[in-house]
Amino acid sequence: MDKLKITGGVRLEGSVTVSGAKNAALPAMAAALLSPVPVELGNVPMVNDIRTTRKLLAELGVRVTLPEDHTVRIDAGGLARCEAPYELVRTMRASVLVLGPLLARTGRARVSLPGGCAIGARPIDSHIRGLEKMGADIRTEHGYVEATARRLRGADILFDRVTVTGTENLLMAAVLAEGETILRNSALEPEVVDLARLLSAMGADVEGAGTPTIRVRGVRELHGASHRVMPDRIEAGTFLVAGAVTKGNIEILGAEPATLLSTVEKLRETGVLVEIDGDRIRVAGVEAPRAASATTREHPGFPTDMQAQYMAFSTQACGVSVITENIFENRFMHASELVRMGARIRIEGARAIVEGPTRLSGANVIASDLRAGASLVLAGLVAEGDTVVNRVYHLDRGYERLEERLGMLGARIERIH
Question: Which residues are catalytic?
Answer without folding.
Answer: 117
